[in-house]
């Protein structure tokens, strides 16, 4: 691990401590403001000196809770939603500790308002402190300070996308200094010669190597203190959620089912119902305006409905705002029409999906509402009735599902979603196998945090230009 990573991780400890102290002081002074005293008069005696002494030791105890919660992990997530969730959980655990101590001592703290306000302020202040550290670190990355030198192996589309993403985004804290395309038996020797004159911190494998070369590469990285990372293939993406047991020293690996079984399924359904009702209320004015625009723009119904495949391969009635000319769906697989347009998906036995570039069937209003996914707003009603979910794999058409290979059908084990991890990772620019790999990862690693992150990212992705536009 680089020294800069250790330094930034260590800085978080005093910053968190300072923010906890400031949060406690903010709660104290808020309690004694004229407005709060006017609502609830102060009938207790709590000096600032006595209060600060208590807060000092409480803040130290909270740092221990933060450490056990993984807030000081050198591999902590860079996602703000995940970071906020950890902070919220840790501060909530800290406030529970305070309540337990108060209960055990059979003494009531002078002000319940200060305890509640301190909890809220601690979440806000700690998050702000970490956000400032994040901004400072990003500025260092932009100047090339503390950046990891990355060597990429592979020449497929995935490797090229990763390389381009790293080059365009300094926030990853990585710099691609070399690309190796030929993955033959001389690979290790070529890498060894390269690192003699160049510092390499990480190696990212984006290609399928034979077992012997793969083991040699892992050993090479271990011997030279280089971090080894790789992009999993389709099977490995299905095996990310495993349980390991040992029988007589022999590891037995069990592929675990999705967390969306049992209580996970119940929590997700509650989340979908609440979220869809809220969205329908918020977006109802936009839906009314869209319906009016469609009616005046072209002939045909306001909504377009047809059959798509849902959970367990069962068909359901899928509908959205009509964005194409009347009877456009009948032209989708028409050979004469296909000869006139360019299919950027390349529909065949290996790729069951179709996407036409500059699709002539799209209306003027349709072009606008498709660009910002306004045409998909009626899907909230499908979420409400339980046919879809807010987050999940894209619902595919029967003609597409008919061409699924066996391992593709994993995406049919849960409800399709309005948005998903594939949509925020490339939308229609991804190949079908890339999309499937991401959807399988989502199924295996689902959590409410992941759903919140995907929903948070979705509005920003809508403004990204796609190949079909």
Task: Note down, in words, how this protein is organized.
It is a single chain. By secondary structure, the protein is an alpha/beta fold. It has three domains: 3-142, no CATH class; 148-231, 3-Layer(aba) Sandwich (Rossmann fold); 263-461, no CATH class. The chain is 51% helix and 12% strand. The protein is built from 16 helices and twelve strands. It has a four-stranded parallel beta sheet with strand order 2-1-3-4, with helices on both faces. The chain has a two-stranded antiparallel ribbon with strand order 5-6. Helix 3 crosses helix 4 (80-105) and helix 4 (80-105) runs antiparallel to helix 5 (112-142). The radius of gyration is 27 Å and the shape is globular. It starts with a helix and ends in an 8-residue tail after the last helix. The mean pLDDT is 82.
